[in-house]
Every structure is written in structure tokens, then in C-alpha cells.
Design a protein that fits this description.
The complex is a heterodimer of chains A (176) and B (388). In chain A, a hairpin with a 5-residue loop joins β1 and β2. In chain A, 4% of the residues lie in helices and 28% in strands. In chain B, α2 links the parallel β4 and β5. Chain B has 388 residues and is α+β, with helices and mostly antiparallel strands. Helices cover 36% and strands 22% of the residues of chain B. The two termini of chain B are 20 Å apart. The chains are: A mainly beta (176), B alpha+beta (388). At the A-B interface, β4, β5 and β6 of A face α5 and α6 of B.
């Protein structure tokens, strides 16, 4: 199974964003929870010729190719991603598995998904009745009671009463 | 304080070059030389002395480590109104919005707005890869090489929605090249055929070479002052400016720009409608964006983009991007955000030479840009009217 792409779900309204940002575009909330998108649907694909064919990347296997496939994928959680398609076999409309390696978003049509698309029985245990498919959106948990608010590590949250000043230098790298 | 409103009384372009000279008057050519050249030409065009200028606005991707005040210093301008804009293809009209108010309020009496860049090779890659943090962190790690990939996706969406083919978008490239043939300032002037367009090298399917702008070195400048500053020469009075930024929070499909929000109110404030436009400059980073913005401006009232492309643009020779647009004249980085305004002013003042649109009275220019994540987040429009 793909490892998924870590996104942020707004703890107030459930809206999911990627890349992460300080305030929810929908409701203005700022207590973010981690949400992992495992699959998506390919909307468009295109091909590019890499500028530097021998460029060292986290995904060394495509650098020798003369062309690489890129795709626009609507993730199961909502955000649309521009992804690398290392296998070069994506087509609009198919479901792909999502993963991320060194902040490169990657989409592959997994054997399981391919088999499901072909109508064959997917290998492994079939999903039980009512069991959500991997990464399927589920209603957000209700706000945790005071003292138990889950804060995503790495997200800057102002200390009470600290104001905007003091933010400089404290903002840490976003979750990749 | 100007009660009659503000007008653009001069406009000029430092000639675009595909392969910029290395030297400029004995110095290594830098962006500031192009900006200076455009400013000098615009002041000449306006008949204004440098010492009369008391406001300066600058938009460029390649000023660092300098800022607008450095440009004021390097151009020898003492000013009381200063702004630096960073919104690229929307920067020109964004500055215009502020400059008009400054002139009306009396904060400045003569403002020069200048935008341009010299970006080549390695600089271009660096700019593309560091366009913003989201791009640097998540997109530059892909072999994207700039925004072509994203606009390939947008073009495919548009093709699906309207049932268009490459032959349809070709009308934009071919019609603009036909105008460019009458503009000595355009870098590509030779007529383009449909066969050449279709057979051009692939960039990011369905985008081929002639769907993408040729980067050039160059700069554009305009002079904004009270309408009655120079009653003896034609000027382009600014009837209305409208802007909409981050209108869809990057969560839409890119088939609408901020013009979908601001075009209607802008026409209303101008007291005009799309049918009044004698000529139009639409920000043309890609043909698909010309079609989208034309519809949002109200230029495709029947909602049939194929008819607009073939009957209006190609056969009807509708005056749209009469300089040849960026697709044929070239994209001088942030200069692209003023290029269309300069062309409108040139047309309205009757100085467009062989491409002059006869008795052009109302001209419109749009700006579009700043691809934050999936599509441009900034859009704006200026409606101008010939006076004097």
C-alpha cells in the first residue's frame, strides 16, 4: 500500500489543505490535525523533458529517461496535487496511490488498484462492509476537551497573549 | 488634487530583445539599465522632465538586493511617493490602481511606473524554482521547469469543458502574430501558419512552442498624472481599475481568474460595458488564459469560445493584443504586467503606426499572474479612455 501524503485537516471545520498554512481558508481556524491522503483520481497528465538528465534526485530511477510524466491528481481528501508519475502509465480517470518522498509527491497505480479497476478481486482482504476505503474522508473528530487539543508537531502556535511579535525565528519548517 | 481624475500621459517600452546585449553604454547590462531606458522613453513620450516626477513605482523580479528606492537613487529621482510591487503579471495594473489614487489625492502629481526584467538561463530557472515557498518546497522538486506543466493541466480542463482542440487555441497565436507583423517592437513578426503551430516542438502536451511566451529582456513604463496636466496632447484617462486577488484560494479549477469577480464592478464604475471596448490587451501567458479572461470581461456574450476564436479573433481581426502580445512581442518578466497597458495607451494616443486601430477611444488591459500553487492568484483590469 502507498504510504500516503500528510495533509492538514482543520480541527474546526474539517477542511483539508495542502500545502499546510497557518489559517484555514474556509473557516479561519488554526488548530490543525494530521490527515493522510492515500489515494487520488488522476485528472490530467502531461510529459516534460528534464532539464538536466543526470540530475540527482530522491527518485533516481527516472533521471535517465528522456521524458517524465507529471499529473494533476485530486486526492481523496480534496486538495489537488501536482505529482510525479514514475511509472509513466497514468491516464485521466484512474485511481492512484499517493506517497511522498523528500517532499516529492508521487502517484502510482498500485497492483491492488489496477486489479480493482480491472474488476478482478483485489489481493488481500477485501474491505468489510461499511469499512471506509483507505484515506476516505471521515467526519472530523469533535474538538478535543481543553488540555487535550492535538497540535500537529512543527506547526507554530502562538503562546497565549504573546501576540504576533515573537513569531520571527520561531516558525519551524513545515511538515514535509 | 485632481478632480478630473488621473490619466496616463506617456507610455513606452525599452525594446525587447530575445538575446540581450551583454553591455549597455559600457556597463554590464542589468535590469536597472532596462528600467532606466523605459523611464527615459516614457518621460520623452509624455513631454515631462525628470525633475517634475515626484512619484515612482517599480515592479521587477530581478532587483535584488536593490529595492524601489535604489532605482529612484540610480535614476536620480527625488520623490514623495514610492512603491515596490511584487505581483508580476498583475504588478503593472496593481501599481496603476494605487498611482491613480495618489494623483487624485494629491500625494503625488507625476508618477512613473516601470516594470521589467532581464532574466535568462540560470536566472530563469532560479526564479521559477523559487517563485514562492510552496513552489520551492513541493513543485520545484518535480521536473516541472516553470509553470508550463500547470498550464498544460488548465488547458486540458478547458479543452474538456468547451470541446476545444489545439486548432482552436491556434487562433490566439496566429492572430497575435499577424498583429506583431505590424509592430517593429515585437521579437517575432514573421507570419505563423497553422501547420507550423501544430507541428511545433512539444513543451508539455497539449502545449507546444507557440503556446508559450518567449522570455525577453526589456521594460515598460507609463507616466500617470492629472488629466489636465497636458491638455495639448492626447492621453489615456483611467476610467476604472478593478482587482481581485486570491479569489478562489487556489481551490478552484483555474478556469476562472479574479476577473470573474472584479470585471463586472469595474465596467460599472467606468460607466461602460464590454461592447464599448475598441481594443483590448489581455494578459496572454498562454492562449487558454486569453480565452478565459475574454469571457470574464464579457467579450464572448454567446458563451461560445470556438466562435470567438475563429470568427472574432482570426477572421474578424478583432483588435486584441495588437502589439502581438507576449506570445509574439515577448515576455519581459514583470514588464509583461505593463506591456498591455503601454499598448492600450499607444493605441489611444494614436501612435501605434501600422497597427493603429482607427478611432480607438476605449481600451482595456488585464493583468494576471502569481501562480501560487495551481494557477494565477492575481488578476486585475484597467479601463482607459482617450481624452484631448
Amino acid at each position: 500500500m502507498p504510504t500516503g501524503i500528510a495533509m492538514r485537516r482543520c480541527g474546526s471545520c474539517g477542511h483539508v489543505v495542502f500545502p499546510p498554512r497557518p489559517l484555514c481558508p474556509r473557516c479561519g481556524g488554526r488548530d490543525w490535525r494530521r490527515a493522510v491522503s492515500l489515494t487520488g483520481v488522476v485528472e490530467e497528465v502531461t510529459w516534460r523533458r528534464p532539464r538536466r538528465k543526470r540530475m540527482q534526485t530522491p527518485l533516481g530511477h527516472w533521471v535517465e529517461r528522456s521524458e517524465v510524466q507529471l499529473a494533476s491528481v485530486r486526492s481523496d481528501l480534496g486538495p489537488v496535487l501536482t505529482v510525479l508519475a514514475p511509472d509513466g502509465d497514468l491516464k485521466p480517470g484512474i485511481t492512484v496511490g499517493l506517497e511522498s518522498e523528500a517532499s516529492v509527491s508521487i502517484a502510482r497505480e498500485s497492483a491492488e488498484l489496477r486489479a480493482r479497476r480491472a474488476g478482478a478481486r483485489a489481493p488481500g482482504r477485501p474491505p468489510a462492509d461499511g469499512e471506509p476505503l483507505p484515506g476516505e474522508w471521515a467526519p472530523p473528530p469533535r474538538a478535543a476537551p481543553p488540555g487535550e487539543t492535538e497540535v500537529v508537531p512543527g506547526e507554530w502556535v502562538p503562546e497565549p497573549g504573546s501576540g504576533a511579535a515573537g513569531a520571527a525565528g520561531r516558525e519551524r519548517a513545515e511538515d514535509r | 488634487v485632481s478632480r478630473g481624475g488621473a490619466a496616463i500621459i506617456g507610455a513606452a517600452e525599452s525594446p525587447y530583445t530575445r538575446h540581450a546585449p551583454l553591455e549597455w553604454h559600457g556597463q554590464a547590462l542589468r535590469t536597472e539599465h532596462l528600467l532606466a531606458d523605459a523611464v527615459v522613453r516614457a518621460l520623452e513620450d509624455a513631454g515631462i522632465e525628470r525633475d517634475q516626477v515626484d512619484g515612482l513605482g517599480v515592479c521587477s523580479f530581478t532587483l535584488a538586493p536593490d529595492h524601489a528606492i535604489d532605482i529612484a537613487w540610480r535614476l536620480g529621482m527625488s520623490v514623495r511617493w514610492l512603491m515596490e510591487d511584487t505581483s508580476g503579471g498583475a504588478g503593472g495594473i496593481n501599481m496603476l490602481q494605487h498611482a491613480v489614487r495618489a494623483v487624485e489625492a494629491g500625494d503625488a502629481s507625476v508618477i512613473v511606473l516601470v516594470a521589467g526584467d532581464k532574466i535568462f538561463g540560470r536566472d530563469y530557472e532560479t526564479l521559477n524554482d523559487n517563485y514562492n515557498r510552496a513552489t520551492r518546497d513541493y513543485l520545484a522538486v518535480l521536473p516541472m521547469e516553470g509553470p508550463n506543466t500547470l498550464f498544460s493541466f488548465i488547458t486540458q480542463r478547458h479543452m474538456r469543458r468547451y470541446g476545444l482542440r489545439r486548432e482552436d487555441y491556434a487562433c490566439v497565436a496566429l492572430a497575435q502574430r499577424r498583429w506583431a507583423g505590424r509592430n517593429p517592437g515585437a521579437v517575432y513578426r514573421r507570419p505563423l501558419t497553422l501547420e507550423e503551430y501544430l507541428a511545433a516542438p512539444v513543451v508539455a502536451p497539449p502545449l507546444h512552442r507557440y503556446d508559450c511566451v518567449p522570455p525577453v529582456a526589456g521594460a515598460d513604463a507609463i507616466v500617470v498624472a492629472a488629466v489636465d496636466r497636458r491638455a495639448d496632447a492626447a492621453a489615456a484617462r483611467v476610467r476604472a481599475v478593478g482587482t481581485a486577488y486570491d479569489h478562489d484560494k487556489q481551490e478552484g479549477d483555474g478556469l476562472s481568474t479574479g476577473l470573474s469577480v472584479c470585471a463586472g464592478p469595474t465596467w460599472e464604475r467606468a460607466g461602460l460595458g464590454p461592447e464599448d471596448a475598441d481594443m483590448v490587451s489581455i494578459y496572454d501567458d498562454y492562449p487558454v488564459m486569453v480565452v478565459i479572461q475574454a469571457a470574464e470581461l464579457g467579450l464572448i456574450p454567446d458563451g461560445d469560445p470556438a466562435r470567438f476564436l475563429h470568427a472574432d479573433l482570426w477572421e474578424g481581426q478583432r483588435p486584441l493584443n495588437t502589439s502581438g502580445g507576449q506570445l509574439s512581442a515577448g515576455q519581459a518578466g514583470a514588464g509583461a504586467g505593463l506591456h498591455g497597458v503601454v499598448e492600450v495607451v499607444t493605441q489611444l494616443r494614436g501612435r501605434a503606426g501600422r497597427r493603429q486601430v482607427e478611432s480607438a477611444r476605449i481600451g482595456v488591459s488585464t493583468g494576471y499572474g502569481m501562480v501560487l500553487w495551481r494557477h494565477g492568484a492575481c488578476a486585475n483590469v484597467a479601463v482607459m479612455e482617450r481624452v484631448n
